[in-house]
Amino acid sequence: MPDRLTDALLMRVGELNGVTMLDEGELLSLFPPKAGVDRRSAEDMLFYLAERKFVEVEYAAEGTYCIRPLPEGRLYLERAAEKRKEGRRSALRCALFSALGGAAGGIAGGLLLLLASC
Questions:
Q1: Which backbone phi and psi does 66 adopt, to 5 degrees?
Q2: 27 neighbors 46 (Cβ within 8 angstroms)
Q3: Cβ distance 14 to 73 under 8 Å?
Q4: Considering only CA atoms, which of 15, 22, 14 is closest in space to residue 43?
Q5: How far, rounded to the nearest angstrom, does the alpha carbon of residue 60 sit from its chain's CA centroid?
Q6: Is 52 helix (H, G, I), strand (E, B) or coil?
Q7: What's residue 1's pLDDT?
Q8: Dist CA 92 CA 97 (whole Å)
Q9: 37 by DSSP, 3-state: which?
Q10: What mean pLDDT, rounded, does the chain reach?
C-alpha cells in the first residue's frame, strides 16, 4: 500500500493516459509544493510503483522519464476511490441515524414529561 505522496503520484500518472514523457521538473510538479519532494524521493516513489506493477517506467535517464500506467495501478485507484465513496456514505448514514435517534429521544422525553405532568 503506497503512502500518501506515492498515492498522489500514482493518481497523477493514472490521469495521464498512455505513455508519457516527463522531465524532472514535470515529475516534481505532480506533487503539491508543500510536500517538499526532491528529485531523489520522486524517483524512489516512481520506482516503488514500478516494482509493484502499478506503472511501467520504460525509460529513465538524465532526468527524463517515460512512464505508462498499468492495469494494476488503475485497479488500485478504482478501489481507493470506491473506499473513499463508501466512507462518505457510511459517515452520512451515521449522521442521519444519529439525528433520527436524537429526534426520537427528544419526542419520547417530551411525551414522558407530558404524561408525568397530567
A1: -110, 110
A2: yes
A3: yes
A4: 22
A5: 26
A6: coil
A7: 56
A8: 9
A9: coil
A10: 85
Give exposure, 74-109, as e/b (b: 16+ Cβ within 10 Å): eebbeeeeeeeeeeeeeeeeeeeeeeeeeeeeeeee
Q: Is 43 exposed, middle or buried (0-12, 13-18, 19+ CB in 10 A)?
A: middle
Cβ burial, residue 46 (10 Å; 0-12/13-18/19+): buried
pLDDT in tens, 31-83: 877 878 888 888 888 889 989 888 888 888 888 888 888 888 888 888 888 98
Contact (CB, 8 A) for 42 and 27: yes
- Go through the chain and tell me how many residues it has: 118
Joined together, the cell numbers standing for residue 41 give 524521493
Q: Shortest CA distance to 66 belongs to which of 39, 51, 46?
A: 46
> CA 46 to CA 56: how far, in whole Å?
9
